[in-house]
Design brief:
This protein is α+β, with helices and mostly antiparallel strands. The chain has 6 helices and 4 strands, in the order αβααβαααββ. The strands form 2 sheets. A two-stranded antiparallel sheet has the order 1-2. A two-stranded antiparallel sheet has the order 3-4. Helix 2 crosses helix 3.
């Protein structure tokens, strides 16, 4: 089964900031991965917690902070991605997305 589409930064941030525990569907959205990979992430986090000597109350969800650490998510950068472009910049020129395809969105302001 194919992934339905990537999750935007706003939705990722909303999931990470609003939930204390994440399930497989949440991990799929945050990590932008499939079901199998999300289950592997969940299982790895549960094993880490148990290796530290703690008991995991359930095997279907894990603490959000553990997912953030495991996936090395920079919440400050994610918050910056979700901010809108200031009105003053929109008035000066046209906002065009850069043709570069990497994890960091680059934007250029073109003067009219």
């Amino acid at each position: 089964m194919k992934k339905s589409g990537s999750t935007n930064p706003t939705e990722r941030l909303q999931i990470l900031e609003s939930k204390t525990w994440l399930t497989v569907p949440d991990i799929k959205k945050v990590a932008d991965c499939g079901e199998h990979t999300a289950r592997k992430i969940l299982k790895a986090i549960i094993e880490e917690i148990e290796a530290e000597g703690y008991l995991v109350p359930t095997t279907v969800q894990v603490p959000t902070d553990r997912v953030i650490r495991r996936l090395n998510i920079n919440l400050d950068f994610l918050r910056l991605q979700t901010k809108s472009v200031p009105q003053s910049l929109q008035a000066e020129g046209t906002l065009v997305e850069s043709p570069r395809k990497d994890s960091t969105p680059l934007y250029h302001i073109l003067k009219s």
